[in-house]
Hints:
Blueprint: E1 15-16, H1 33-36, H2 61-64, E2 75-84, E3 89-96, E4 108-112, E5 120-123, H3 128-134, E6 136-142, H4 147-154, E7 161-167, E8 182-188, H5 192-212, E9 221-227, H6 236-245, E10 250-256, E11 271-273, H7 282-285, E12 289-295, H8 297-309, E13 317-322
Parallel strand pairs: 8-9, 8-12, 9-10, 10-11, 12-13
Antiparallel strand pairs: 1-13, 2-3, 2-7, 3-6, 4-5, 4-7
Amino acid sequence: MLSGVFWPLPSCAMTQAFVMSPLLRGSAGMFCPQAALSPRRPKGLRPFGSCIMKPQKKTDHLERTAKSFRQQVLSPAKVCGLIKESETVRRLRLLITNKDLTFKAGQWVDFFIPDVPVVAGFSICSSPSLLKRESALELAVKYTNHASSLWVHTKCALGSEVTVRVGGNFYFDPQPSDPPVNLVLIAGGVGINPLISILLHLTDLQRHRDKKGSGYEMGKVRLLYSARNTDELLFKKSILNLTSAFPGKVRCNFYVTQQTTEISEELRPYVTEGRIPQEELEEHILEDTLFFICGPPFMIEHFSQHLEARRVPKEHIRFEKWW
């Protein structure tokens, strides 16, 4: 995936995901769809996807993610919505024309742009239910000097046409009969994208259960989200609305590392200056909890090593690595 993150802030970051055994039951290159198709679906990916951290020398998105799961569905898509999410992030809503395209909360898309000879990977930041209801999905893209990001920020307009394909092993996809699972979501910068998709998906499932009386019951979700400043805390209003709509189920804490202005009264109860402290994880260490981490490599290594040192099983630690 392509985007910028904080912890520390790289100029252009990419993600890499690898397959790990399941816990419970359950990019740049020439546009050449045939060559870009990945191997068959890895075994044991339902209902959760996860990753193993390994060093990577490749810089091409399609090469770097070649071992990741990919659908073989390529779908034309049209830009039907544009929002300035922050000074550096633009959110796109894409109308998907191929009804066979689906995704799991946390996955990304290969992003093909006409006349742009490189392929990017962007994490989806919307819930799968939006795709079902409106045939649409959303991406939040940070400004960088990568050709695809430059196109999104300087040339993309309503009606622009692109092609997308879903991929990735980092996701949370509980089934209706699965027992509730508690989650801790740890995000750095635009690493929030796949995690907000997971959070939105869980709350959609809970709303469905509350309405129909059956379906998956979400466990408790704790979001720890770090950014440079409060302006760069993406989706903060949506996140706070979810904490109000699901008291006792959803909790969030924001962290800012380079805040230079006064924090608004609305946000102040939720914001702490500094990085996410390890102590915030301690109350969850002894629980049967899944940890999902997305952000720059240093942040992922810091928290995954800490969790492993505290004897959290490796299969309980999932991450999407941004390069």
